Amino acid sequence: MKHPTLNRAQMSDSLLTMFFITLSGGLQDAYTYMVRGKVFANAQTGNIVLMSSHLFAGEWSACLRYLLPVLSFGVGIMLAEQVRAFCQRFSRLHWRQIILLAEISLLFVVGCLPASANWAANILVSLACALQVQSFRKVNGYPYASTMCIGNLRSGAEAFSCWLRTRQPGLLHKAAHYLGVILLFALGSGLGAVLTHLVGLRAIWVSCGLLLISFALMFIEEHEKDAPHAPHAPH
User: Fold this and answer.
1) How confident is the model at residue 234 (pLDDT cuts 50, 70, 90)?
2) Which of 117, 163, 191, 204 lies 20 to 30 A from 92 at CA?
3) How many angstroms from the chain centroid is the CA of residue 172?
């Protein structure tokens, strides 16, 4: 008999969960850039470039605005790893569900912060993004990133190039998979831009809703996989 934690882990790698996770990732990046001082929540490479530019211009306060999210992102990666290590044995909640609850809580607080606290909002969103990208790293067996696109673009272009040479159907499917992830991220970013114009600082709460759906989906999949009549999928 399978441990219920394993079933929830499988759902965390599903296409449906990835759909809402990736939409949320795109929305978060657009949100911080549009209404939180043009700081990237996910694209820490961009933050490092901007930080370095201000550093060499002697603009220390502007440099700090980009440095803090970078440091927060690193802390988030370490926290996610600690949660994975210490919470894997939970029978009620999968450790990735604990990550989602933490991320939802952080983003809800962000939506309550005024514009004068943009520095704190960017720290919290970067922390949430790091928790997400470290915890949700595969979909249907393919590695992917739900909060940035460069790795997905590289993997998709590589798979398509190999398909052009070998015509293996699996490679074309893999390339299409990564293209879909990129399009979802772009859709989430566009949604974030529209929502920030409509509701301003509270737009991040939509991201909380998307993550909450992913949290709930992991329970639904567990129930389906544990049903007595459900056939066992080949491993």
Assistant:
1) very low
2) 204
3) 25
* Token representation of residue 88: 């894997």
* DSSP helix/strand/coil, 93: coil
In contact, 51 and 66? CB cutoff 8 Å = yes
**Is the model more confident about 209 or about 60?**
209
Architecture of domain 4-222: Up-down Bundle (1.20)
Task: Tell me the two tokens of residue 128.
Answer: 């949430």
Among the listed residues 138, 140, 112, 144, the one whose alpha carbon sits nearest the alpha carbon of residue 125: 112
147: which 2 tokens?
């909060």
Name which of 115, 103, 106 is nearest 35 in CA terms.
115
Q: What residue segments make up the domains of the chain, in order of their start?
A: 4-222
pLDDT of residue 91: 66
**Please, where are the H alpha helices in 142-227?**
150-166, 169-199, 204-226
Radius of gyration of the chain (CA): 19
Q: In this structure, are residues 80 and 135 in contact, taking their beta carbons and an 8 Å threshold?
A: yes
- Cα–Cα distances in Å, from 185 out to 15, 24, 42, 111, 152? 14, 8, 12, 21, 10
Look at residue 143 and give its three-state secondary structure.
strand
As a whole number of Å, the end-to-end CA separation of the chain is: 15
Q: Of the candidates 175, 150, 177, which has an alpha carbon nearest to the alpha carbon of residue 29?
A: 150
